[in-house]
Specification:
Length: 125
Amino acid sequence: MKGAVTGIILLVILIYSVFITQNIAGLTTRKTELTMDVSNAVEQTLDNMKEEQYESREQMAEAFVRDLKTQITSDADIEVEIIGADHIHGLLDVNVRETFLTSDGKKKTIEVRKTAVLEQFQEEA
């Protein structure tokens, strides 16, 4: 009887350990994915400045959101905050917040901020 109780307790501890490990791995994966997606979208938006000139800060922000949407594959709620955008000099500063539910039903939020400046950009006169 004592052995059965010990076995059940060890089984419960093992199940909780696997569950906790899965949540930590999922959080790390989401953070890595969001960081890479935001970086790629910022880079793509600034690279597009070389080919097409944005006419306003809002147009540059819309281009970033469009580029980010093509990158993200997760099913989370995404909030984008454009902190700074200079369509003339090629500056983009964004903060992206992803809110999702973990496997145990808790709401988690990950936040990534990226700033980039387009180097060697010269406006043709």
